[in-house]
Amino acid sequence: xxxxxxxxxxxxxxxxxxxxxxxxxxxxxxxxxxxxxxxxxxxxxxxxxxxxxxxxxxxxxxxxxxxxxxxxxxxxxxxxxxxxxxxxxxxxxxxxxxxxxxxxxxxxxxxxxxxxxxxxxxxxxxxxxxxxxxxxxxxxxxxxxxxxxxxxxxxxxxxxxxxxxxxxxxxxxxxxxxxxxxxxxxxxxxxxxxxxxxxxxxxxxxxxxxxxxxxxxxxxxxxxxxxxxxxxxxxxxxxxxxxxxxxxxxxxxxxxxxxxxxxxxxxxxxxxxxxxxxxxxxxxxxxxxxxxxxxxxxxxxxxxxxxxxxxxxxxxxxxxxxxxxxxxxxxxxxxxxxxxxxxxxxxxxxxxxxxxxxxxxxxxxxxxxxxxxxx
Length: 375
Description:
This protein is an alpha/beta fold and 375 residues long.
């Protein structure tokens, strides 16, 4: 099987565009990964996700291990066949979800024992078991098992957690072994501390990974604090490997991260917002529940060629959102994912052309204008 590789093709300041080559296809960076938590991006077909321009999806180890089970997915041909997605898949390690179960878990050096949020059954997740689950799923990019404490937290707690994650990173590397065509990413931790981030990066580089993630952000610290970390954290990681910022984010979070050297991101926001009546546009977010849209015959966003904008008015979208019709989630999720992928394409093109500063200025100016005026 062909291998995994990454090449930076252009830079503009600290921003990079590039190509990740995998046996299942090329990932253009900067890349946004839609989240398919339980082997589906909610309210949209896999082929529709591909039509928005997504090169890669994210699947969730924690949810898939509980239901339907990694062994069952493997028996049915692996996650790609199971969910009808032929392009690359990245699976997270399960560490972040376990963090959110603080009241249902017991953490020690070996791993985490926790109770399922579905049926209360007890499970033991370790670096070795996380690697086994992700191997059974057949994901192209595997994440090392880590612990991610919520912020704010005191520095001693952050340091303890980070060092445990680095020991787990070594165990993840050992358990992953040699899998041609599949990649293993390590995860930098350290909260908001520059010193702890540097210590974590040094430990990860010594172990050696195919790519490196920046973890422990977008967990309550706010954008300003996140950007302060991103002002130095990406440069601590190897320049010849992909840099993945986990769990981000809003459009302006994404632009700010790309400006600071991030290559990959994921977030549930575009699909989750689509299910609650919120749409993202170049001029900011739009709440389709608002009465101002009830008689508006115009499309959601001029220039967007997604089905929601091609075939339906704001008045119709307002109606189906307020009526709770499933088509509202379908159309708005498609639109939001299309918007995010269009933003990534614009960022890649601007980096390649050396015009990123101009593109970002236009992005910010459009958002400052706000949504179109009501009729």
